[in-house]
Amino acid sequence: MGASLLIVLAAGVVCIGLALYLGFRDRRFRAVSYKVTAEVTGFIQDKDERYQTQYRFSHDGHEVFGVLHKTTPQPVMKPGELILLRVHKNDPTIVRPYTSRGESTARVFLMLIGVLMLLTAIPLLVFVS
């Protein structure tokens, strides 16, 4: 029983560590990026019949074209609509959505699960020992 509690304890530490890593990675990207308003130019349909959004924006007088990695079952925006993106200062091809709710949700979930694992495993380890 002690070994399984140690596994739960280790998994909790890994979850918390991963949540912290994702948070620091996001902060690091925000520190070296800037906000840009991009125009939706169209959509690309992949082999799974999901859509990726194509965009364009201006960087140092040059037009930059790209495709967002996130896919949707149907096009959500219309061509010509404006979206906010974060663009890396040194490499304008590295782009992320301005608000990434998916990563925030994953970080909160990992932190919550990790803390619950630690709060469960530590007292049980103390009582078992």
How would you describe the overall organization of this protein?
- The chain crosses the membrane at residues 6-24, 108-128.
- This is DUF3592 domain-containing protein.
- The chain is an alpha+beta fold.
- The protein has one domain (2-128).
- 45% of the residues lie in helices and 33% in strands.
- It contains 2 helices and 5 strands; from the N terminus they run αβββββα.
- The chain has helices at residues 2-31, 101-128, and strands spanning 33-45, 51-59, 62-72, 82-88, 95-97.
- It has a 5-stranded antiparallel sheet with strand order 3-2-1-4-5.
- β2 and β3 form a beta hairpin.
- The longest helix is centred in the first third of the chain and has 30 residues, at 2-31.
- It is elongated.
- The mean pLDDT is 89.
Put the structure in a nutshell:
The protein has 129 residues and is an alpha+beta fold.
Throw out a few tags for this protein.
129 residues, alpha+beta, membrane
SS elements, strand count? 5
- What distance lies between the first and last C-alpha atoms, to the nearest angstrom? 10 Å
Extract low-pLDDT stretches. none
Helix proportion: 40-55%
Order of helices and strands: HEEEEEH
Radius of gyration, CA atoms, in whole angstroms: 21 Å
| Average of the residue pLDDT scores | 89
Strand content: 25-35%
> Would you tell me the structural class of the helices and strands?
alpha+beta
Global outline: elongated
What's the total helix number? 2
Cross-sheet strand order for the largest sheet: 3-2-1-4-5
Largest sheet: 5 strands, antiparallel
Count of individual domains: 1
